[in-house]
């Protein structure tokens, strides 16, 4: 079974890659030569195009073709055509054999280690963390069962997994739970390929690219291909492509060309924002490719149009966060061009400005981090910039930052500091800071007799640019603006170039004394060992939230420290190749060990303290899974009502619709949550059966009466084409107690209805006869606990260990709600309001 899943996962990635190549056929192959794309960069672009395009294509096919096998056959044909057309552009040639082998030798074990510390060590099949995967798995399972993709799925983008995974599940029997495991490993391999594509743009032919790639691979913090991670990683490759084109002819690159590219990119962003629909953005991308073909044939501005329109449109198609990623990449690229011009004008006052920024920005960042730590521990009064930021979000998004919303959860300097901290890690941060300080004191800029900057100038420009750009972006992130920390991957990529360049200039470009290389290796080994022993691996205080997480990774961390010590000893060797490999290995492995240990620490930030006797990081257990599988086998037409954690696993396994929507397990609209909790409490009241049923129906009728469009479509009462053409940017204010229903909201809350009004409303929604649907409530100890929570409180991420009280089961069995299924921790009951 695992072999089948592994093969189908590989097929999943190949289909999306081939579909992307098919779209790129609209432009002639000449654009690859004009933009000087490497094979790795071309593959990353193709997959980014194909990931979302495959979902849109399957969505359109499902509207007109009922046979899922035929839908899959069409996609396979399109993908096969793209792979065949692009074969000359991505097939490994005889000259690429060595590079491909070196990449595999480095990437495969690093990918396996990354998969282990990020997921494998904390999971035990079939249990794991699928809290963020609920929506795509639900959509995929629904598609596998019905043959039609739900265009009203509660996401603001075309999820790159749901359509194709659902197609493979409905035709070839792909197990979505197993797929969520193998998919992660292939995701990491893709990110490592993207890292290589990025450093190719910085170091096209230099051996430095392998050192930079190794540092990027061992420090990789992106471990799952989602729409957001795909967009930001492809943005990094986009920056590499811009850099490779400008580094080859930086002195000849005209101001007119730079401004034209920036204007085209800005126009693309504005046009995509105005179109506000994924299908239309795909049409914009295809129109851009057609324009590239025309301009390539005439030899005018084809490359500028491709880089300014096609690549940004591709990123916008993947995720709305690209409205942030694209300007960040362009700003970084423009800063590089500005620094090149400054250096070429030596001597100049601007050089002093660069030196000032190189020292001032890190000091400001350190001051902010210290202030955040002071606020975190109560030494400094907490501050919030949400009022200031709300003026910006109000202008761009049409909404303020309110407590309890996702914008609020993603804002603030503390959140930004934590997210940046776990992306970088202390070892990498300390090493790169000390390395740049050491370089600044010992490496002057060399100039030739004519006054021109000598051969070392390229390295100087690259280092200064990456350091200032990374620090500047970090300073912006630490301002605490909502979700600005999502550019952390871009910041890490810039600092990786800084680390590689600093390392090479200090320890590779000349033969350093033995004591110097031993000192560097010993310092990194000692720092990593101290962190592992004192913080990461052992619980010196058992009351800390992360104490129980440490046991998951302790053997891996200790093994890493032993290997690190062996590599440190290799730096004593006289052979230049041996000690260079040893030094590179010490830096990379030291960062990797730090990432491993940090992964166990930050788990408490995401999930809270681990309960006793818990061996798996999971929000569901065997009882939850048993309920979900029973519902899938016995009740295909059921609308589920429960707490969001229980509904999450049930929807992921069954594809069943829910009475309300939620974007994350702990973010449910307050008004909807209040109504739902009242329904559950009323069902468990010790009042008479008939009165209890009438009270329950009067409370649940407003929820059902304004049920979301995703559920309406699943019940056969919504327009599919209209769903595909809807706006992807849903802006809804907090729901009032009364008002008009919103098709995208989790539910509309209105005053309670009379018994007859409630029954009429529910009957009108659920219908009768063969098309009848059932309202089904799932009651667990967690559901009961959820009903007693205040608006600002959250449930534990982990499932409860105690069984459901027998008195509750007895009350349900003797009440008006038929018990369809029950186990140790759950009861599935039907709410017969429509009968």
UniProtKB/TrEMBL annotation:
It comes from the Bacteria. The keyword Kinase does not apply. The keyword Ubl conjugation does not apply. Keywords: Membrane, Transmembrane, Transmembrane helix. It comes from Bradyrhizobium amphicarpaeae. This is Uncharacterized protein. The chain crosses the membrane at residues 6-28, 40-62, 68-87, 99-117, 181-199, 211-239, 259-289, 301-318, 324-344, 356-379, 420-439, 460-481, 487-508, 520-540, 552-572, 579-598.
